[in-house]
Amino acid sequence: MLSLGTFFGALAAAPIADGIGRKLGIMISCVVFSIGVAMQAAATQTPLFVLGRVGAGLGVGLVSCMIPMYQVRLCLQIQGRLTSPFSQSRNVRLNGSVVPSSLAINWQSP
Q: Where are the alpha helices (DSSP H) in the chain?
Protein backbone atom coordinates (compact mmCIF):
# COMPACT_ATOMS: atom_id res chain seq x y z
CA MET A 1 0.00 0.00 0.00
CA LEU A 2 2.85 2.36 0.76
CA SER A 3 4.37 1.63 -2.65
CA LEU A 4 1.04 2.31 -4.35
CA GLY A 5 0.80 5.72 -2.70
CA THR A 6 4.44 6.44 -3.53
CA PHE A 7 3.83 5.63 -7.19
CA PHE A 8 0.88 7.98 -7.50
CA GLY A 9 2.62 10.64 -5.41
CA ALA A 10 5.60 10.63 -7.73
CA LEU A 11 3.30 10.93 -10.75
CA ALA A 12 1.44 13.87 -9.23
CA ALA A 13 4.54 15.70 -7.98
CA ALA A 14 5.50 17.58 -11.15
CA PRO A 15 2.04 19.05 -11.90
CA ILE A 16 1.59 20.03 -8.24
CA ALA A 17 5.05 21.61 -8.06
CA ASP A 18 4.42 23.54 -11.28
CA GLY A 19 1.01 24.67 -10.09
CA ILE A 20 1.70 25.85 -6.54
CA GLY A 21 5.49 26.05 -6.46
CA ARG A 22 8.18 23.71 -5.26
CA LYS A 23 8.68 25.07 -1.75
CA LEU A 24 4.96 25.15 -0.92
CA GLY A 25 4.59 21.73 -2.58
CA ILE A 26 7.26 20.26 -0.31
CA MET A 27 5.53 21.74 2.74
CA ILE A 28 2.16 20.34 1.71
CA SER A 29 3.77 16.95 1.00
CA CYS A 30 5.15 16.86 4.53
CA VAL A 31 1.67 17.60 5.89
CA VAL A 32 0.20 14.79 3.74
CA PHE A 33 2.86 12.41 5.06
CA SER A 34 2.22 13.49 8.65
CA ILE A 35 -1.52 12.94 8.29
CA GLY A 36 -0.86 9.47 6.85
CA VAL A 37 1.43 8.59 9.76
CA ALA A 38 -1.10 9.90 12.28
CA MET A 39 -3.79 7.76 10.66
CA GLN A 40 -1.55 4.69 10.95
CA ALA A 41 -0.77 5.43 14.58
CA ALA A 42 -4.43 5.94 15.47
CA ALA A 43 -5.70 2.93 13.53
CA THR A 44 -7.59 0.28 15.43
CA GLN A 45 -9.06 -1.28 12.29
CA THR A 46 -7.36 -2.43 9.10
CA PRO A 47 -9.09 0.00 6.67
CA LEU A 48 -7.83 3.08 8.52
CA PHE A 49 -4.33 1.62 8.67
CA VAL A 50 -4.36 0.88 4.93
CA LEU A 51 -5.63 4.39 4.19
CA GLY A 52 -2.84 5.79 6.37
CA ARG A 53 -0.26 3.74 4.48
CA VAL A 54 -1.52 5.08 1.16
CA GLY A 55 -1.47 8.64 2.53
CA ALA A 56 2.06 8.26 3.89
CA GLY A 57 3.17 6.78 0.58
CA LEU A 58 1.60 9.67 -1.28
CA GLY A 59 3.61 12.10 0.85
CA VAL A 60 6.83 10.14 0.33
CA GLY A 61 6.29 10.03 -3.43
CA LEU A 62 5.59 13.74 -3.61
CA VAL A 63 8.65 14.67 -1.55
CA SER A 64 11.01 12.28 -3.31
CA CYS A 65 10.15 13.89 -6.62
CA MET A 66 9.90 17.54 -5.51
CA ILE A 67 13.13 17.81 -3.53
CA PRO A 68 15.47 17.15 -6.50
CA MET A 69 13.46 19.65 -8.57
CA TYR A 70 13.84 22.23 -5.82
CA GLN A 71 17.56 21.52 -5.45
CA VAL A 72 18.15 21.99 -9.17
CA ARG A 73 16.42 25.38 -9.10
CA LEU A 74 18.52 26.57 -6.17
CA CYS A 75 21.97 25.98 -7.63
CA LEU A 76 22.05 25.66 -11.39
CA GLN A 77 25.87 25.58 -11.52
CA ILE A 78 26.26 22.44 -9.38
CA GLN A 79 22.93 20.73 -9.97
CA GLY A 80 24.47 17.35 -10.81
CA ARG A 81 26.51 17.32 -7.62
CA LEU A 82 23.39 18.13 -5.62
CA THR A 83 20.91 15.69 -7.11
CA SER A 84 23.08 12.65 -7.85
CA PRO A 85 23.82 11.72 -4.18
CA PHE A 86 20.08 11.80 -3.47
CA SER A 87 19.37 9.49 -6.40
CA GLN A 88 22.29 7.22 -5.57
CA SER A 89 21.22 6.78 -1.95
CA ARG A 90 17.65 6.08 -3.02
CA ASN A 91 18.84 3.41 -5.47
CA VAL A 92 21.05 1.79 -2.84
CA ARG A 93 18.15 1.67 -0.39
CA LEU A 94 15.75 0.24 -2.96
CA ASN A 95 18.20 -2.39 -4.17
CA GLY A 96 19.18 -3.28 -0.62
CA SER A 97 15.58 -3.83 0.36
CA VAL A 98 15.14 -6.70 -2.08
CA VAL A 99 18.00 -8.79 -0.69
CA PRO A 100 16.54 -12.05 0.57
CA SER A 101 16.61 -12.36 4.33
CA SER A 102 18.80 -15.47 4.11
CA LEU A 103 21.55 -13.39 2.49
CA ALA A 104 21.13 -10.33 4.68
CA ILE A 105 23.43 -9.62 7.59
CA ASN A 106 21.69 -9.78 10.94
CA TRP A 107 22.11 -6.26 12.32
CA GLN A 108 19.89 -6.59 15.37
CA SER A 109 21.42 -7.22 18.76
CA PRO A 110 20.23 -10.34 20.60
A: 2-20, 22-42, 46-74, 79-97
Q: pLDDT for 2-61, tens place per residue?
A: 788 888 888 888 899 889 988 899 999 999 999 999 999 999 999 999 999 999 999 999
pTM for this model (two decimals): 0.71
Are 58 and 6 in contact by the 8 Å Cβ rule? The answer is yes
Give the separation between CA 52 and CA 57, rounded to whole angstroms: 8
Cα dihedral 16→93→102→40 (10° resolution): -40
Angle 8-24-3 (CA atoms, 0-180°, nearest 5)? 20
Length in residues, the chain: 110
Nearest to 39 by CA among 21, 11, 24, 58: 58
Category of 35 on φ-ψ map: left (φ > 0), alpha (ψ -120 to 50) or beta:
alpha
Phi, psi of 78 (to 5 degrees): -120, 35
